Amino acid sequence: MGFVNGVPLRHLFFLVSCLLLALRAESTSSLIRRTAYMVHMDTSLMPKAFKDHHTWYSSTIDSLKFNNSGFENYQSSSPSLIYAYDHALSGFCALFSLQELQDLKKSVGFISAFKDSSFTLHTTHTPEFLSLNPSTGLWPASNYGEDVIVGVIDSGVWPESESFKDNGMSPKLPKKWKGMCVEGQSFNSSLCNAKLIGVSMNSARDTRGHGTYTASIAAGNYVAGANFFGYASGIAKGIAPRARLAVYKVSWNEGRYVYDAAAAIDQAIADGVDIISMSLSRPKNVPLQRDLLAKATFGAMANGVLVSSSAGNKGTDGEILQNGYPWVLTVTAGTTDRWYTGTLALENGLSITGWTLFIGNISNYRSLPLVYEKRRFMCDRALWEIPIGIIICNGYLPLSHQIQNIAQYRVWGAVFIANKSISSEIENTQHTIPCPCMIISSRDALALLEYVESTNSPLARMTFHQTVEGIKPAPIVSANALRGPSLLFPGILKPDVLAPGTLVLAAWPSKLKMEKGWRTFYSRYNILSGTSMACPHASGVAALLKGAHPEWSPSGIRSAIMTTANPLDNTHSPIKDNMNNLAASPLAMGAGQIQPNEALDPGLIYDATPQDYVNLLCSMNFTTEEISSFTRSRNHNCSTPSSDFNYPAFVVSRHDNVTPIVQKFQRTVTNVGEGAATYKARVTYPEGSTVEVLPGELIFRKKYEKQSYNVTISHKGNNDGEISFGALIWVEQNGNRAVRSPIVISPAIYPRE
């Protein structure tokens, strides 16, 4: 055991962990109401009813009374256990309110409790949010994606970034790799290494940042001390940190062309990549039979390469879901449980926490006057003069307009009052706030305005660069992500899954200038949002699964990701849609949030061969020539055309709101468990529907055995025109696996000609 100044390293790590949580959780009136405490317990007094210390600690915490006075919905409804320890120390670390702490002191075995706030450490966080860990699950099972090759088709790469160093990686490249490190302008072959094993498509030098960012999310190496001007400080790493990277540049400042992307896919297949990550959009208003990107990704699938792509964002990609091909993993974006915050400390002792990404340093600022105009439109219009103080903005215009207006002036500070939930407001801002400003909730605004009106000289001080984790609920589907169904294949559920895509920290070209308002700055890391950020998370998970199960097909990998996805958030409630704050439908979130560890052992998979995809194309009345452009041969077989594709979801399209409809499906599942298994069907019914599953029980006698079943969905019709949804879940008997497929009933949408 190691020691630091006489303190055992395990003890020191324990204390640092708890002190981290103490600082992170400590707040007064807004995001987090509880504080992390280290609690020492006398284990000799553990009641005999408990089988172990962890169970005892959990029961002790659950027995405490509490008051649910949280900030909107972002507050845990009960005390929360963080760590339990049995070796270095006897006790646990947990979040408590002061009243809960007083009640805890009366518990059997309680010795003492303390908090501290001397350390301020956070981790760059999405792998942890997805429950990836070095002890169990997909990371160790795949050896962190070692020797899986991820091809990133984007704007290139900044090879000097520490995320692309090859520390800890074997210099021996996989035998399947056939690619090269192609030199070009400002890029020579010496910049490649055991992590970044190949680049192609003229100069791979990234002049936009997007490619560097997405590549580091999918497969970036470990980097200590990563942060964005103090926010999200910690150890950066990709989802598959030991995977190899091959980068194909297809986006230049001068333009982006589909043929470049198609050529990159073609080259990636020839080079021997396992996974393609492609955060770009298909061309608009192009029918499928003329869609070059559709054909190139079809070719990747036929060659055993899974393509992961983004669902698209409102505004930049229009209003129609992108990349809705059945042979592609289509990924949409959700929030994480981490926020970036600042504190507004009032002179009366009250502190208010607000959301911000202001990057400047105002640590020397003294307390300033609070400036509030009751007529409410101060931040909606031009300022005739810049007041000395912190402006309180409570205007009528959308928050993004108010921020843009105030950002024109070098104000001392500003506080914006959210008209909706802060999560919704954040989506409509440009994230990096170009002034010393923060967004607070309407609830916290009541306390702020009460203080302002109670004194003739209200004062406050602002601090920034804070990071808070454990926000609830999370994930929430991004309001800016495009929704399904796919216009190309309305009978196939799209998007497929939800992945972290909001306010994600990742690598950035260090010499690429960024501008916000009147500020110009440079950074090795950046924080961005969008489905482009979600896609490489799923790409990384696919790479890990390929490493753990190299025999799985692209369809098998996608099936494992979909059927184990979680439709619930971290409060165990249905994931919400930030567009309307209601439960998200599968057309918004797909099957749910990806769960890498569960996808490692899905129990059953819905597999598909290239011929199955050909059968689907054959059902769409394409000509022989049009289908040949996908299959690359006139010898394709269209003898069994079928639109009932073996997909892990069921979509029923209503042609009107009143006519009853009955639709039948057939599915085949493959047992990828270790041996014999029995599964029984369990259905949650969409509103106004019945679902019949025959047989209702599937019995597998060995691994890789296949079983088929039939589903009949009857919908009586309704008058509201709304989407209704449910799920079919195959539950393993005497086991832990549950294989879930969404059921969606929605108004019909017709493919474009």
TrEMBL record:
Domain Peptidase S8/S53 positions: 145-569
Name of the protein in question: Subtilisin-like protease
UniProt xrefs under CDD domains: PA_subtilisin_like (cd02120), Peptidases_S8_3 (cd04852)
PROSITE patterns: SUBTILASE, SUBTILASE_SER
The entry's keywords: Hydrolase, Protease, Secreted, Serine protease, Signal
GO biological process, one term: proteolysis
Matches recorded under InterPro entries: Peptidase_S8/S53_dom, Peptidase_S8/S53_dom_sf, Peptidase_S8_Ser-AS, Peptidase_S8_subtilisin-rel, Peptidases_S8_3, S8pro/Inhibitor_I9, S8pro/Inhibitor_I9_sf, SBT
SUPFAM superfamilies named among the record's database cross-references: Subtilisin-like
Alphabetized Pfam families for the sequence: fn3_6, Inhibitor_I9, Peptidase_S8
Residues the record marks as active site: 154 (charge relay system), 210 (charge relay system), 532 (charge relay system)
Localization terms from the record: Secreted
Major localisation: secreted
GO CC list: extracellular region
Gene Ontology MF annotations: serine-type endopeptidase activity
Organism of this sequence: Morella rubra (Chinese bayberry)
Annotated signal sequence range: 1-25
Every Inhibitor I9 domain range: 37-122
Family affiliation: Belongs to the peptidase S8 family.
Limits of the Subtilisin-like protease fibronectin type-III domain: 644-745
